[in-house]
Amino acid sequence: MIKNIILGIKAYFGAFSLISKLKLWKYFAIPMLISFITAIVVFTSAYGLSDNVGAFISKIWIWDWGKETFTTISSFIGGLFIVVIGLILFKHIIMALSAPFMSPVSEKIEAHLTGNTQHAHRNTTFLQQLWRGIRINGRNLLMELVLTIPILLLKFIPFVNIFSTILLFLVQAYYAGFGNMDYTLERHFKYQQSTAFVRRNRGLAIGNGIVFILFLLIPVIGVILVLPLSVTAATTKTVEALQLKTKLHNA
Known about the structure:
- By secondary structure, the protein is mainly α.
- The chain has helices spanning 2-10, 15-21, 29-58, 67-97, 99-114, 126-153, 160-188, 191-200, 202-216, 221-250.
- Helix 4 packs antiparallel against helix 6 (126-153), helix 5 (99-114) packs across helix 7 and helix 5 (99-114) packs across helix 10.
- The model has no long low-confidence stretch (mean pLDDT 83).
């Protein structure tokens, strides 16, 4: 899996040039706008709620001794909780709403990589692609929240919280990569088949998602460029994985 994680990360190195070569930047205009507006709404709301969450958590400690220390920790955990939930909501909202725009881009990249412009893929409409994006990302949102909330609770345990940070980052990365890979898988597989494919190639999803999350840490520019580069990188590796699967099946 480590090898696939590295491959997922390395795919980004050629993403910018591939977008320029295929003249795809114009197709990313609406998704980049969706990403920018969503970021403003989600993270502004998150900033406003962070103090409230910290104050709520601090009420759990009913004793006077250690109250100040627990309140300080609670404020930090509350802020972290809001940031993490904000990131989760942001990425799934933009990936769901951008699906009808990203799927055609993914198809153009696949045609370039395979040299096959006559696809025997599933034909889907704009609304079907949007519904697929909402369904996949809605499912991933629920799964990610189920995993994330217990991991955040581990932050209250000394030493363990170091490992929980790494685990939390990997969970975030996996589901980000999952969404990016599905823009290609949407043409090849139905819902259940896609989830099974990503599980078998989870290293590629994590590698793609690691860079996706790191991009979000770059103010403004990261939010705008994250979709074009991550989708392009995910498409190249997903197509390779699909071709390998076909070769093994025919062997």
